[in-house]
Amino acid sequence: MQNDAFVRLCSPEMIKLALVYSMKHKKNKNTSSVKNIAEFLNSIIYEKKKFILKENGLNISKSLFIPYNIMPHGFLLDIDGILERHRDCFFFVDSSDNNNIVVQNEQSADNMLGICNIVCGFFLAIKELQTSENELYLMALFDSVVSNVVFEQRVEFPKIISKAVEYGYLDVQKVSDFAK
After folding, report:
1. Model's pTM, two decimal places?
2. Which backbone phi and psi does 96 adopt, to 5 degrees?
3. Rounded to the nearest 5 degrees, what angle is found at the Cα of 56, between the Cα atoms of 54 and 60?
4. What is the C-alpha separation between 120 and 13, in angstroms, rounded?
5. Among candidates 90, 69, 83, which has minimal Cα distance to 17?
6. Phi-psi bin for 53: left (phi > 0), alpha (psi -120 to 50), beta?
7. Fewer CB under 10 Å: which end of the chain, C or N?
8. Block mean pLDDT (10 aa), the chain, length 180
9. Range of the domain at 74
10. 56-78 exposure pattern, b = at least 16 Cβ within 10 A, e = fewer
11. Count of domains for the chain
12. Across the strands, what pairs with 116?
């Protein structure tokens, strides 16, 4: 059950929250162009899953941070359950005197975030940011960024994009509406 909580905390839904938070609140060089977004996504694909519970949120890897106040209740329960059951937490104080907890998931051989989770998380982030005015732009942005990521990672586009279809990519009704 604890391993399931770790899997959920690194799911595309949580990656979406981290990416939306980054794109909305921490606008930086990672969000300034298609190339920079693709480079950022490529850089986090192979980041190790690392759970650092801070006073204001959770890092699921070195670069992906999610504030507690935007997490759905179920994910907060997962964190609480991990803390209750995990006996080997490493406590440390960072440079700003905040108490943080590092929790390792030793039960999982899959220690990387992975391209499918990142692409699906990015797709969900794009959906979250969509309005009727920017929908076409954001879907074109998604397609461009994912094309760059797939090319850089040397993986087949259909294999990766088929995972995004599970989250609503290529909504058949919307495609037919745009064709009219």
Report:
1. 0.82
2. -100, 20
3. 55
4. 8
5. 69
6. beta
7. C
8. 76 94 74 87 89 86 92 90 68 57 60 89 92 88 92 86 89 49
9. 2-179
10. ebbbbbeebbbeeeebeeebeeb
11. 1
12. none
